[in-house]
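Incident review: delayed structure delivery

Summary: a single-chain prediction request sat in the queue longer than the usual turnaround. Root cause was a stuck worker, restarted by the on-call engineer. No data loss occurred. The affected request and its eventual output are reproduced below so the record is complete for anyone auditing the incident later.

Affected input:
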Amino acid sequence: MVEPVDTYFLETIAGATAHPGHHERGPLDDQLRLDLFDAQVGSRHLDLAARRLRADGKGFYTIGSSGHEGNAAVAAALRPTDPALLHYRSGGFFLARAQQVPGSDPLRDVLLGVVAATTEPIAGGRHKVFGRHDLNIIPQTSTIASHLPRAVGVAFSIARTRKLGVACPWPADALAVCSFGDASVNHSTAVGAINTAAHTGYQGVPLPLLFVCEDNGIGISVKSPPGWVAANYAHRTGLAYFSADGSDLAETYAVTDAAAQWVRTERRPAFLHLRTVRLMAHAGSDYEQAYRSPREIAADYDRDPVLCTALDLVQRGLLTADEVVQRYQAKRARVLELAAEVIELDQLDSAETVMRPLRVALDDAVTASSHPPTGAETGAQADDTPLTLALSINRALAEVLESHPEAVLFGEDVAGKGGVYGVTRGLQAKVGRARVFDTLLDEQAILGLALGAGVSGLLPIPEIQYLAYIHNAADQIRGEAASLQFFSDRQYRNPMVVRIAGYGYQKGFGGHFHNDNSIAALRDIPGVVIASPARPDDAAAMLRSCVEAASTAGAVCLFLEPIALYHTRDLHKDGDDGWLARYPDPGSGCDARIGRARVYGHGTDLTLLTYGNGLRMSLRVARRLQRRGIGCRTVDLRWLSPLPVDDMVRAANATGRALIVDETRRSGGVGESVLAELLDGGFGGRIARVSSQDSFIPLGDAARHVLLDEDTIAAAALDLVGHR
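Output delivered after worker restart:
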């Protein structure tokens, strides 16, 4: 197959002639010009080969870098130790970065990704990404702009790790670079990340970050308004603006060099607007002629950065036209030779091999949670004082901050105020403002900060103020946090423990944004650990388990805290203090392993399977049933991902009757999975489930009509055991 841009290049360069003596030397020496041209040509032929492989049914990815190869000069102007998070059109950057670090074969690497070969060095055949650990390129998939919040977190952490005396993989004078397209700049994730960077820099907090917007003027088929990017970012407070013609290699290098020097010196963010052109459509499957005229498409060929660099080399007398063609065709031959080799290589051939990074990561997390730190390691002091859930979490966080100098805690209102419910009260005073601090009000920014901190040597513990708010930023968990070990074959990890105040039953406050019982969007994310403590002692022990899993295995842990139980003291009657619990000293034998349940009672008539607020309701119902001669055992699931399947089945089999008590919604709630796991586990007894209604939670007392209550649980229990 022949691409018109390929033909145009060869025809145009054939007529080029030298004009020596009329060119300034500029910022590029002759050898660097030739090296960058080599990277540009390599990137172009990778695009051509990818389309050829796809046409032959041998390749699986055709989003190319053609027209963007000027970003090779961006890489050349930076250091190979500057962490990079790259746009999917950054082939030139990838090849130029590889020129700076011996030991890789970037042409082969990219082709291995295109054909999904298991020997591909970063993702192992799971996705085509630009990434290599030794090149400090953190792999990104093609989700629009979702990597920008992480880039902010990386830049923040370069300075913050030094302030805390914590080891960081990036040098002290490094900057983070993040590239993206002009269409992506409109996505809320990009807008929020750039705003966060500017907001941070405006306050004088070090944030060495270079945003690179590669503006080709079109997003798939939708044109960007001319001048839109410059109008929005050329005069943005807290953000330095630089602009360059991406078809001009020397200009791109000079402007990037100036921008990089500014960022390194000022330790503040900058925005590089790189004007590019898109060649060969969005991807191989995109029929560009459906929305662009032939004249419009052909007009872009003269701005082809590969052609512009080739003409410049000829005019300067560095190469003849014939030598350019020879290099161009030699690179084509080399790429096609490599392509012929890689199509014979193995691909992932089973679910087991595909999921290996997820499985091993979870196994490592479970192992880490099985070996909690000792009291000496945490600095814990023996104390028999009964605590509420909130106080127990507060104390556990204090211990984590004491025993893990790399741990940082942040979110909205968590510092001076100590959180909406006082859970983090006093922690900033204990460890300082550098480790416990407030963020701006943007959940994407909070999670992005955690993502960047996790790959940069810190152990982030972000707080999402309410469960409903995480849905504003769920893709930072789904598309970025949970997928990093999968798409880097565990070479990169972003450990974190995300604290989320949630569930319903909060009285006198809120409506559905402050009483939310929907966690379905979290539970279907592969690889995450979801903890749901209800009791104060469990909360502390489970938090320690999450911290160890994150610190040791790089786990992404979501820690769901029931708001309604934060300050609860009583269980069965006023003043009984039945919900208080002694703080579990590390090493005391409290079993808080990931994926293990906790059982209350030894009844033989009925098993109640529950979690969160459902635990307190179920224990109260069990007391009522006991008075009627019905013996219950109540199982607190505690871990919603992975579910404690063995414990569930064992407890259900012990009575032959299982009632699933689920405070989330009937459709998509936790109870559906519990039911399925019991059946898959061979439970053959009687089974039923109760849950909240498929409704948002209204304000005030109306909430009682849609939330699960004790009377409903009791009635279902009696029916299940045959009592009316």
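Verification: The chain has a mean pLDDT of 94.
Action items: add queue-age alerting; document worker restart procedure.
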